[in-house]
Amino acid sequence: MTKNIYDVTVIGGGPAGLFSAFYAGLREMKTKIIDGQDKLGGKVHLYPQKMIWDIGGTEPLAAGKLIEKSIAQGLTFEPEVVLNTIVTNIQKESDECFSVETSTGDKHYSKSVIITIGGGGMIKPVKLNIENAHLFENKNLHYAVPDIKRFTDKKILITGGSYSAVDWANDLSPIAREIHIIYRGDDLTAHEADVSRLQKNGVKVMTQSEVTGVSGGELMEYVEITNNQTGDITHDAYDELIVNHGYDQENLLFRENNLGLNLENDFFVKAAPTGLTNVPGIFAAGDCIRYTGKVNLIAGAYADAVNAVNNAKTYIDPKADQFAMVSSHNQRLKSKNKKIMY
């Protein structure tokens, strides 16, 4: 059976991975993206309504809108996209080819690999471990805030005591009818100033309490709350429930690490600012990479991606130019420019 070998396989479909795919296409590289989620966009999906200001040359925009734009750009040159697939291992197949092994049992073959799995690898929200909670997911039980406007004039319960939970309570207070936040501990763990804002914003705080049940029809209607000190149980009506109990981390790729990548804290790749790792042919970009002077911004991920792609290009073709022609004069974009300009 003939192997379908790609020039570069990008592991991770967040901002760094999508820009890597775009730039690899600009460099005429046959490209594949593999991502463990059911959609491209990466961890930005965890905060779609947060405003991002620190990307040069663009007005502030919601993270969800950035996802849309990033995906459109990343698919410009029609890379192969493989979703719901976790990369578990990378093996050296031959002098010119890597075997990328996955959770589905499929193997993908590539001349080079760019790792862009973000900080901490794959993360998933810790879900409510109570009966029937799954029935209301993607309805009015949320593990991220999808659209701020939907919470207008609603009675909201937020469970969790971290920075993110408190942040959402403060952000939603101007438009919500009523907000309660509960936490099973003694004190909220967010910054003191943010906790003080809760009182100013009229948010009711309940500590030593947790959600122990949810019920309703098509939508969740009632939440069972148990006070862990007194044992008292109440059943209160809420329009929306936001759960922020942290995240589970998983990184099977680095756990196996058969290639011997230099890692930091088992979740980050030690590499050069150019994206070069200690394994020839394997490159890294974005929040999963560590080097002196690393900028942990989305804007920094774009620079990482360009460096990684350029080095992947010259790795598989030593005679290639180190850098691509700038986009304003790049022949790969000539026909696309005409469609926009005329």
How would a textbook summarize the main sheet? 5 strands, parallel
CATH class of the largest domain: Alpha Beta
Measure the end-to-end span. 46 Å
**Structure class:** alpha/beta
Helix content: 10-25%
Q: Which regions are unreliable across 5 or more consecutive residues at pLDDT < 50?
A: none
The coarse silhouette is elongated
- The total tally of domains equals 2
Tell me, rounded to a whole number, the average pLDDT. Answer: 92
Please provide a written account of the structure.
By secondary structure, the chain is an alpha/beta fold. It folds into two domains: 5-123 and 248-341, FAD/NAD(P)-binding domain (3-Layer(bba) Sandwich); 127-245, FAD/NAD(P)-binding domain (3-Layer(bba) Sandwich). It is built from seven helices and 24 strands. The protein has a five-stranded parallel β-sheet with strand order 6-3-2-10-23, with helices on one face. A five-stranded parallel β-sheet has the order 12-19-13-14-15, covered by helices on one side. The radius of gyration is 23 Å and the shape is elongated. The model has no long low-confidence stretch (mean pLDDT 92).
Looking at this protein, list some descriptive labels.
342 residues, FAD/NAD(P)-binding domain, alpha/beta, five-stranded parallel sheet
